[in-house]
Amino acid sequence: MEGDLTVRPGLQPPWWLDEADGLDDGGSAPPLEGDAAADVCIVGGGFTGLWTALALRAREPAARVVLLEAERCGAGPSGRNGGFLHGYWASVAETRGMFGAAGAVALARAGEKIIPAVRALGADVWLREGGMLMVSTAPTQDRAIDKAVTAAEQLGASEQAVPLDREQLAERISSSVFRRGVFWPEGATVQPARLVSALRRAVADAGIALHEGTRATGISSGVVTTARGRVRADAIVVAVNAAATGWRPVRRHVTNFGSYVVLTEPVPELLAEIGWTGGEAIVDGRMFLHYFRTTQDGRVLMGSGTGPIGFGGRVDARFTTDAATAARAERGLRRLLPGLSSARIERAWGGPIDVSADHLPFFGTVAGTSIHYGLGYSGHGVGPSWLGGQILASLATGRDDEWTQLPLATRRVPTLPPEPLKRLGGGLVRAAIIAREEAEEEGRRAGLGVRAVAAIPRVLRMQIGTR
Ligand SMILES: Cc1cc2nc3c(=O)[nH]c(=O)nc-3n(C[C@H](O)[C@H](O)[C@H](O)COP(=O)(O)OP(=O)(O)OC[C@H]3O[C@@H](n4cnc5c(N)ncnc54)[C@H](O)[C@@H]3O)c2cc1C
Predict the structure, then answer these.
(1) Of 347, 272, 251, 257, nearest to 302 (Cα)?
(2) Ligand 1 site, residue 377, Cβ cutoff 6 A
(3) Mutual orientation of helices 384-396 and 92-111 as an angle, nearest 10°?
(4) Whose alpha carbon is nearest atom 25 of ligand 1?
(5) Which entry of 6, 93, 266, 421 is 20 to 30 Å from 300 by CA?
């Protein structure tokens, strides 16, 4: 076994999928056979595609909508993520620099509608509105906390980012390695596969034609081709997430990183001992962050965004079977939460995250066509995919409205170097940052070479990492 790893990733499905198995998710969705016609054809049955379908139905009740999913809805990251559900108040330190104060606040206010939209589904998706925390576990991570607090203050929204000193933090969760933190009230957790299931059922109830086991093999203006059929559509929405990172219209703006989680057995008594009973979703202050949360049945999920970088848009086994990254997640669990040292790991799994050049999702239309796309969630798509659904539904119906005016749809997204530079350069910098952050947590100073390479993104004003 790899280092500290007790369960290998990829041997079993994500636990979420097993837990949600058997829920009423709207019945069968047979593969597409033959030709079909639609006003809008959506490709991809994750959160983005499903929310887009519902948003289209709300805008144009009579529209013919077809949704094609290569495997089963939720087979991708939507059914295997950490279940952190939030908008953009936690990102204002970054978005203010990119969009100015007004743009950052507009995006954060739009994001406030996400949790109510999930609540309005009326399904039991294990929605727990416990807020979100960022904790610092090394002096170098304090800066991220301070930046988040200061940015909210300067935007006149100090209630959205509340600083916590060591004692205040310990009232929410106690760990000997936590120095201080920031609490964002706007944050929740869900059981993501239950959310997929609820959305799938809502889509079926809305009369949308859903075809699973139907991979799009070709997309051109007005036509989506599959192995055994074809959909002619006035508008096409490409919502395939990581699978699009090699697609010409977007490939210079996004690349795939692996993210892995480990899940413990139920340990409610240990959670009570460390006082973590409020359901907060937590991240640390690393650039390649750890993310951790509890579940309704008292388990702890610990994730690490330090997985491998993809090449040329390929989504391969590196994103589901990388034992080294799952081992880092397990090491993170033991280090960050020493009170849970006896908790047994029951499952480990991973998936790709589509990291854009500025760490925010982007939405647009391929020039001269009615093909619309959205991706680049950078590991933060559970909530923002609801916004994505609104934007894509508006684009696909030719609207120019509050959604298409959001900076997620209007900004110019920076470009990344072409392959193989994207993979090689990114891999080098990633390894250096991980080494530097590990050294900092152990109270050591990384070597000069490591520090120099790790500093490259800052010097070039590039975003790297998964925070
Ligand atoms: C381990 C992990 C942890 C994460 N944790 C969090 C978290 O806690 N909070 C958060 O906000 N985000 C998290 N994320 C990110 C989040 O899961 C994604 O941003 C979100 O699920 C993206 O949804 P999507 O619908 O765009 O993509 P997907 O869920 O990938 O859906 C795309 C769908 O398209 C289908 N598809 C692909 N190609 C084709 C084709 N040619 N034809 C038809 N269908 C196709 C796929 O099968 C897939 O079902 C995490 C991701 C991972 C991997």
Answers:
(1) 347
(2) yes
(3) 70
(4) 46
(5) 93
Q: Ligand 1 centroid vs 152 CA: distance in angstroms?
A: 29
Cβ–ligand 1 contact at 326 (below 6 Å): no
Overall CATH class of domain 129-190+254-356: alpha beta
Give φ, ψ of 307 to 5 degrees: -70, 175
SS3 string, 191-204, reads CHHHHHHHHHHHHH
In Å, how far are 30, 151, 198, 313 from 213, measured between CA atoms? 7, 45, 19, 21
- Residues 365-402 as b/e (b if ≥16 CB within 10 A, e otherwise) read bbeeebbbbbbbbbbbbbbbbbbbbbbbbbbbbeeeee
Could you tell me the mean pLDDT of each successive run of 10 residues in the chain, 467 residues long? Answer: 78 97 95 98 98 98 98 98 98 96 97 98 98 96 96 98 98 97 98 98 98 98 97 98 95 94 98 98 92 98 91 89 95 96 97 94 98 97 98 98 98 86 76 80 79 69 62
The Cα-based distances of 288 to 304, 328, 405, 442 in angstroms read 7, 11, 31, 16
- How many Å lie between the centroid of ligand 1 and the Cα of residue 49? 10
CB 189 near ligand 1, within 6 Å: no
Kindly state if the Cβ of 306 falls inside 6 Å of ligand 1. Answer: no
**Cβ of 151 less than 6 Å from ligand 1:** no
Which residue is listed with tokens 């034992």? 323
Q: Which atom of ligand 1 is nearest to the CA of 352?
A: 53
HSE at residue 102, side-chain half, CA atoms within 13 A, is 1
* Residue 153 CA: distances (Å) to CA of 128, 181, 184, 298: 26, 15, 13, 34
- Start and end residues for every CATH 3.30.9.10 domain found in the chain: 129-190+254-356
Residue 115 alpha carbon to ligand 1 centre in Å: 18
Answer yes or no: is the C-beta of 70 below 6 A from any ligand 1 atom. Answer: yes
CATH superfamily of 15-81+193-253+358-410: FAD/NAD(P)-binding domain (3.50.50.60)
For ligand 1, what atom is nearest to the CA of residue 71?
47
Work out which ligand 1 atom sits closest to the CA atom of 293.
8
